[in-house]
Every structure is written in C-alpha cells, then in structure tokens.
Design goal:
Four copies of one chain form a homotetramer. The first copy, chain A, is mainly α. Chain A is 72% helix and 0% strand. Chain A has two domains: 46 residues, Homeodomain-like (Arc Repressor Mutant, subunit A, Orthogonal Bundle); 141 residues, Orthogonal Bundle (Tetracycline Repressor, domain 2), CATH 1.10.357. Chain B binds a DNA duplex through helix 1 and helix 3.
Chain lengths: 224, 224, 224, 224
DNA sequence: AATGAATGAGTATTCATTCAT
DNA sequence: TATGAATGAATACTCATTCAT
C-alpha cells in the first residue's frame, strides 16, 4: 500500500516541520511570549493544522523541549559518553555543551525557564519524558566519573557530586557568557574550562603517598 | 506629630505586606502565571490598592526581586563577605546561600526564571537595581577569592573563575535538592559542600615543589 | 476559484458590518462613552472578532470617521463640486450637507467631537486620512468660490473666507436643528439657506434695476 | 457673628478655587481625559475635599462649564450687548468672542465637546443652567440684529438667521485658527471679520454714494 | 472641613482553541 | 487534512467615589 505509506510519510514530515518551527519560536521567545499563531506562521501552516498534530500549546512545548533535550542526549552519547577514557569523555561533554549553547542561543532558556503553570520548581514544568532523559543523562555522566575514580584517573570524590558540579559550572559559564559577550573564541574558552575543571579533580600522582581521602582535607595527608 | 507618623508607618506597613504577598505569589507561580488579582487577594487588599503603591505588575515583580536579592546581599556582607579569613568567608557564603534557599523555597525560580520581556537571557528581565546588586555581590565574592589566592590560602586560580564556579555549583545543588528531597539535614549537606569545594582549591603545602601553575596539568610534572 | 472568492467576499462583508456597527455606536455615544463590547454586540460578533479586522478601538474609530467623511466627499464631488456653475455648485453643497446631516443624525458629533487623546483641538484626533479629505474638500469648495468670483457671479470676496463662512453657517444650522426640532421640512430649510447665503454674496448688478434678491423684501429699506 | 461669616467666606473661597482649578483642567484635557485627582492637585486640595463641595465629576464639570459660559455672557452684556448701536454691538461681540477664544485656548472644546453620556447631540450634556444662558445669549444677539434691522442699519433679514450665521462663522474661524496658526495678529483678524460680516448685511444706501464697502474691490461696479 | 488610602466595577486587549468549509 | 475566521474567557490597569481618622 504505497499510497498509504506516502501519506504517513507526509504526515510525519509535517509533524517534524511543525515541531522544528515550535522549537525555533520557543527558543526565540520563551513559552509565554510565544504564540501558537507565530509558530504556525513559522511552520507555514494554518493554526488549525497544528491542532491536528498536537493537543495544544503546552503539548507542543513539551514535544519541542523533549526533542531538543533528546538531541543533546543523543549527541552526548555518540560523541562523549561512549568514550572509554573518562578524562576524554568529560572533556567532550564540556565541549559538546558549550557548542550546543553557542549554536542554540537561548537554548538555556528552555532548560532553565519556568514551565507553564509550574509550581515552585523550575524543572517541574518539563514533560516527564524530558525529565527522564535529563535524569538518564546525569546518570550517564555520573557513570563516567565513577569509572574515572575507579580507574584512578580522578580523585576519589563522590561521582554524583562531580556530575552536579560539572553541570553547575558549565551552566554558570554559559549564562555568564550569554550576558557578557566573551572576549575569547569558543575553542579557547572551551579548552580553559576543560583543563581547569579536569585539573581540579585529576588524581595527583604526588609521589608515593597517593592518599585515599574520598574527599576533603587532602592537604593533611601531604603533611604526614 | 504622632498622627502623621502613624499614617506613614501604616502606609509603609501596607507596602511591605503587599510586597511580601507578591514575593510569595511570584515564587509560587512565576511571573507570567501570577495574576495581580491573586497577589491582591494574598495581600488582602483590593486590586486598586496595589496600584497605589506600585506602578503595575512588572514594577511589583521588580520590587519583589530586588527585595529578596537585596536581603541576600545584605546578609552576605554581614555574615560572610566581611570576614577576613578567605576560607571562612567562602564557607560562610555557602552556608548562607544554602540556608537562604532552604528558607525561600522556590527562591531560585525568581533568579532563574525568565523575567518579563526577557529574551534569551534569564537575568535580562531583572530590574537594573537587582542586576547591579548581583554584579556587586559577584565582585565581592571575586575579591574574597583574590585575597585568598594572594595570601596563599587558595591555589593560584583566576578569582573570577572561582567565583563563577562557586555560583554554579551552589545553584546546581540547590536545584537538585529542591527537586529531590535531600536525605541529609541541611547542616551536613552544607558542611560537605564547604569541605569539598574548599578542599579542591586550597593550596597544598606539598613540600618544596609547591609549583605555581595557575591551573591545569599539575600532574604532568610528576609524570615526566 | 469561486470558493476562495467567496471567503474573501464574506470577510469583506463582515468588515463592513463591523464598521457600520462602529459608526452607529460612535455616533450614538461618542468615542469615550462607546465600548468595544457594545460595538461587538451591535455588529453581532464576538469582541475578539473585531480585533481580527481592526487594530483596536482607536483604529475602529478612525476607520469609521474616515468612512463617513469619505462618503460625504465622494458624494460632494459627484453631485456638487463637479458642477460648472458656481452658484449651482454652492447650492448643491448646501443641499448635500443638510441631507447628510439629516440622514446621519448625530453625524456632526463625529466631526466635532474631541477625538481620542485630542488636546485642545476638536479636529486633532481625526485620522490623518480623514483630515486630508477634509482639507481637500475645503480646497475644492474654495475653488468653487474662486471660480464664482472670477466669473463675476459672486462678490469679490476672499474665496477662503467664503468657504469657511459656508462651513460655519451650515454647521450652526445643523446643530441648531439637531437640538430644536425644525418646524419646516428639510426642502424648505434647504431652499431658504441656499437663497439667503447665495443672495448675500451674489454680485449685485448695481444698475437701477434693484434686482431679484432671491428672498426678502430688501426693497422695504429702500422705501423708507 | 464674625466667626461664622469668616467661615462662610472661607468656604466660598475654597469653592471658587476648586472651580477655577476644574475649569483649567477641563479646558486643558477635556471631560474624559481629566481626572478628579488632577483637579484636586491643581486646586491644592485632597480629592475628598472636592466631594465636600461638589457632588462628583459630572457636577464639577457642569459647574465649570456654567461658570465659563456665565463669564462670557456677563462680559458680552457689559461690553457688547448693552451698546445701543447695533453695528457697534455686533462688532464688539465678534471682538469679544475672538478674544475669549484666544485667551481660553481650548475653550471651544468645552462648548463643542461631547458631554458625559450625551446622546446624539453635542450640547445635550450641558447643564440646564448653561443651556439656558446660551439660549439667553443667543436671544440677546437676536435682539441686537432685530434692532439693527428695525433701525434700517442692517438688511431686512431674519434676525435669528443672522444670529446663527454669526455664531457659525465665528466658530468656524476660531476652529480653523486653532488648528492652523494664523499669520495675522488677533486685532487684524478681528477687524477683517467684523468688516466683512457687517459689510455683508449692512443696508446699502442704494443712492449714488456707493460708499466705502468695508473691504475688497467691489469697486468693480464703479468701473462701469 | 480636610485628608488620602482603600475600593472594585468597568474596559481594552490578547490568544488558545474550535469548527464549518 | 488543511484552513483561518470566530470565539470568549482571562487579565492588567484606571479612576470616580467612599469613609475612617
């Protein structure tokens, strides 16, 4: 039944066009400022058509956010999380996230912004699926750190702590740079961030006393 | 004359009540989802009364945000930034911010959320005054780190970098804990965060070879 | 394709219905006292629909005023201004304006009333287009008088002065009659006004034959 | 009882101050755009105080309009209507009205503007008292013309017609000049208007002395 | 009388959603 | 399916009026 299949393919293509348009508009304007009409115009469809594919503005938003986050995660798996060397993996993650933020100016907004009708928590408005992807993403990052600690590449710190720190640091820099135009090219900023972060947590082969503090007072050990 | 003063005091009290109500509602709902009517109800005043004190919803929002941030900064100066010992100062900052986040559940939302009309940048919509306070706050934190590096308490890292990292890390943890109920009491979490962060950046008195790389690959030397 | 055309025609028809309703309401209530809701009800559309056709209350007002004035001017050109004989042209103008005022009871209100935001000048709030039409109308009237003076039909008075006098006189009578129910039929009032005004400005053939004053016994004075 | 009297005098003084402030504001802004608060500020009283003297905004408006019209009428009686010579009286009226319009820029607004809630007629919203004064004023003007015709100073035209024409012409010129800055000083405009209007209606002493037509080259007749 | 803070009904405008074609 | 005109609930803001002090 080729005709049927063509129809299905066409329908799917339209769905993707609408979703892509929604992404662009939400990223441009944020949830509240975006209008269904603008999304429709961006997608070159009539408003009514959007409702044939999605259940409404909120559903469209959820689908768009899921899409973006899904892409990021997929990229991360492909380019970073899959690497065997933890140090390289962390470096690739930083690289990827900075590039992503650079490419999708305003992408942050989608992750940080208050979602519709959200209560108390910035992330609450995210669709469950997106939330799950984010959690999975974080788990994978934690796993990278865990492996790094296990292999003696990183200091014996809590992998979860490390993952959260990485997340926070990268976001802080992205936010800062999105406000104050950075004076260095992306590659340089990226390199610096990688070196410094990794430099902080790499196990120092400081002679024989390769102390085992999972964390803290590492200085004390050196004294002895 | 006392009568005059009483009226003024009452007016000021009403202003504060309204502002407090606005804070609560904005924190609960976010800027867009909050309605002036709800704020008025929360404040137990008529809508019109709000407009006798503030110029509109946006002004109310700005005043509320400025209020919160102003309080935080004032507290920070009193309890942390003024301390002479950089290590103690950083510890006090972490403590203060965590406490603050604990007290104002959802406070983050106000800082992170897209402000009215904001494009692309979460902080763009903040009132100028609040933005100035935030910038000043960050400057003060940078100064603390600068002093720490100068005095040989911290590793020779860029103070600005350190300030931004601290900011990001604290926010990441706050965000995480605001979503996943933490299993440890605040004091413990606070202590851990302080120790680990500070531990990462404290200058290690590693015997004579206390090399001064401002950052990175401190391990390399040992490898060769 | 007829379907496309039908939709367009329907849309245009709806636009006209809304405009007509707005005319009626504005004429009835004046700009400030009219409400968008009332106009919508008069047009038998929902409020929102009005905003699909016009940019707001002011735009609706402007469109309505322009419509009325445009019609008047178009009629004037067709029935009066085009006439070659200045005397006939002036007569036709008077006739037309009186008829117009009779048909659009309250039309004057639209021309005289303070327009939105107007300061100090009744005409200031008129939309530019309407103002241009009014100015053009006046210019055309001036031209009629100029021709009349040139041809020796009218006394050698300033055409601009004559045009303004005509305007004022007609308005004064319309206003008066709109308040005090006139006791004569329109045609009679019209005829009187024409005769008297034209009689005042017609060149007197100063010869002995103390000419056919279109009206009244001016002879009496001479008799005494 | 001097104290009582002082109180009364003070109260009356306050009333007049408020009224004067209302006049200024209504003239400046028109009825709808004026706010009670602005009037109160202009009068240097609290809003509440205004309500001790007047029943509300509409009452204030009515009182203010009545006041203005009353002044105009009083002035007219003193300076124009009382003159025995009809020609001088008409001249003085024109002079007075032009001066009045010049002094109270925006005065016209008060006479022409739609009154609050008025229906169909610009003048309907005027308070009865003001309407009565206007009617009386017009009657007095009619009487001047009647006398002029009776005495053979003016052509034998309907005095009512003449009064209405005068009214309309003066208003038309005032309106025009309020929009297009006049290029002649008030005195000149005033003189021209007087000469032309009166010249149009003065009885011509049809004898040989075809004298001093106030203006323009009617002299043509002399050519013959 | 004077004050001015409090009131709340009233209005223009927006925009997600529906549905007849 | 695609369309886009019609809908009307929702919302920020205004301002005349009241009333306790």
């Amino acid at each position: 039944m080729p005709s049927q299949t063509r129809k299905q393919r066409e329908r799917e293509a339209h769905r993707r066009e609408i979703l892509a348009a929604a992404e662009r508009v939400f990223v441009r304007k944020g949830y509240y400022a975006a209008t269904v009409e603008e999304i429709a115009a961006e997608a070159e469809f009539a408003v009514g058509t959007l409702y044939n594919f999605f259940d409404g503005k909120k559903a469209l938003y959820h689908a768009a956010v899921s899409e973006i986050i899904g892409q990021l995660y997929a990229d991360a798996r492909r380019r970073a999380l899959g690497l065997d060397d933890p140090e390289q993996a962390v470096g690739a993650l930083i690289e990827l996230e900075l590039e992503y933020a650079e490419r999708h100016r305003g992408f942050l907004r989608v992750t940080l912004e208050m979602a519709p009708g959200g209560e108390l928590d910035p992330a609450e408005g995210l669709p469950d699926e997106a939330q799950r992807v984010i959690d999975q993403y974080r788990q994978d990052v934690i796993e990278v750190f865990r492996r790094g600690v296990e292999r003696g590449v990183f200091d014996a710190l809590d992998p979860f702590y490390l993952a959260l720190c990485l997340e926070g640091i990268v976001k802080a820099f992205i936010t800062y740079w999105s406000r104050h135009e950075p004076d260095e090219p992306l590659a340089v900023r990226c390199e610096k961030l990688k070196q410094t972060f990794i430099g902080r947590i790499k196990l120092r082969q400081t002679g024989p006393a390769a102390e085992a503090e999972p964390r803290v007072d590492r200085g004390q050990g050196g004294q002895s």
